[in-house]
Amino acid sequence: MCGKHTALGTVLLAAAWGLGIGACAPDERNDVETEGFFAGAEGARLHYRVVGNGSDTVVVVHGGPGAGSSSVRPDFEPLAERLTLLFFDQRGGGLSELPADTTRLRARFFVEDLDSVRAYFGLDRMNILAHSFGSVIVARYAQEHPGRIGRIVLHGATGPVRERAARLARRATPPSPDTTLSRRAGELLGSLLDGTSTDPAASCREWEALNRRMAEARGDTIRWRGSSCDAPSEAVGYYFRYTAQLAPRTFGDWNFTKGLENVSAPVLVVYSAYDDSLAVAEQRAWSSAFPDGRLLLVPGADKGALAERPDIVVPAVMEFFTRPDASISCPREPGVECSPTVADSGVVRN
Q1: Integer angstrom CA distances of residue 260 from 28, 281, 310
Q2: DSSP state of 221
Q3: In this structure, how many other beta carbons lie within 10 angstroms of the beta carbon of residue 173?
Q4: Could you read off the pLDDT tens digit of each residue along the chain, which spans 350 residues?
Q5: How far apart are the first and last CA of the chain?
Q6: What is the CB neighbour count within 10 angstroms for residue 124?
Q7: Cα-trace Rg, the chain
Q8: What DSSP line would sit under 235-250, residue for residue?
Q9: Crossing angle of helices 107-120/134-144, nearest 10°?
Q10: What is the layout of strands, in order, in the sheet containing 126-131?
Q11: How far out from the chain centre does Cα 25 lie?
């Protein structure tokens, strides 16, 4: 069933596609955007923003954890042309609560907060778009609540096995040819992680800018527009010092290559097709972990495939969420690997 929310405006959100339930009509205005707060687990004050007015609603779970929805919103908003996107800031970042008690950053609270989104907005089952570490949160949620999910897209997902994900993270950023820039970036990141920065938002913005300059010096083209720095300075500082460091540890030694057998929801895994056998293998592991998993590997992209190749990824994701059979049209382009339906994926199941 569909439900109302009253904080800073009322919007009727659509039910998940193809679930045998009536869909609610969203606000009739075009490009509806409204925001407010709702109560998460144990009453945590969490911020949300709704963008678009499509008949299919998708809950966006950003990375970090705690990086804030601004880390993905500019890059995911093109999907609002046909979808209603429900962004929310996870606890410990963005405009949401920064818990004084850091034990409230444990994994179970992030999972319970996601179910609070579903309940608050009256969604019988959720369509979910997860980015980076958001995929770990969603996988844990899927294990605990398999019947509450409509469809899932994992975009730029953190690996399904903790040990291998940590190995990938350690080698994710190649050394910079400019040691001065590299040294300064390291100093800024250190001040954010240990809480000594006097202006965390400014330090974060400089750190992100330096990382872009170093990437460009390596010949990379950066099209990702999202930023973890677009939040109150206190929230940016809290995110780096506490949420990003403490919360992932509480998920334990996760291994999602098993334990998702009861998840019947269709799942689309989107990533780059670049020549990194370990990274691509991890995305294959994600798609094979779900009974109805499929894979889209895109050339000329990285973790930010949607921003790097919107010509391929935006139509594919919109098709996946809106077509009754959850299939996608595979682009006829060299280097693209695509399984439009699980039957065509050719992935060996565990």
Answers
A1: 38, 18, 29
A2: -
A3: 13
A4: 232 222 222 222 222 222 222 233 334 434 446 999 999 999 999 999 999 989 999 999 999 999 999 999 999 999 999 999 999 999 999 999 999 999 999 999 999 999 999 999 999 999 999 999 999 999 999 999 999 999 999 999 999 999 999 888 776 666 666 688 999 999 999 999 999 999 999 999 999 999 999 888 888 878 999 999 999 999 999 999 999 999 999 999 999 999 999 999 999 999 987 756 788 899 999 999 999 999 999 987 778 899 999 999 999 999 999 999 999 999 888 889 998 876 444 333 33
A5: 35
A6: 16
A7: 19
A8: HHHHIIIIIHHHTGGG
A9: 70
A10: 33-39, 45-51, 83-88, 56-61, 126-131, 149-155, 267-272, 293-298, 337-338
A11: 26
- Tell me which H or E stretch contains 49: strand 45-51
Residue 202's region, left for phi above 0, alpha for psi from -120 to 50, else beta, is: alpha
CATH of range 33-166+251-344; options 3.40.1110.10, 3.30.1780.10, 1.10.10.10, 3.40.50.1820: 3.40.50.1820
Beta strand ranges found along 116-205 (DSSP E): 126-131, 149-155
Written in H, E and C, the secondary structure of 75-103 is HHHHHHHCEEEEEECCCCCCCCCCCCCHH
Report the C-alpha gap between 58 and 74 in whole angstroms: 16
Q: Where are the domains of the chain?
A: 33-166+251-344, 173-240
Tokens matching residue 285: 């592991």
Model pTM?
A: 0.88
Q: Are 190 and 241 in contact (CB under 8 A)?
A: no
Amino acid in the structure at residue 91: R
Spatial CA neighbour of 269 closest among 160, 153, 187: 153
Cα dihedral 70, 33, 117, 85, rounded to 10, equals -70
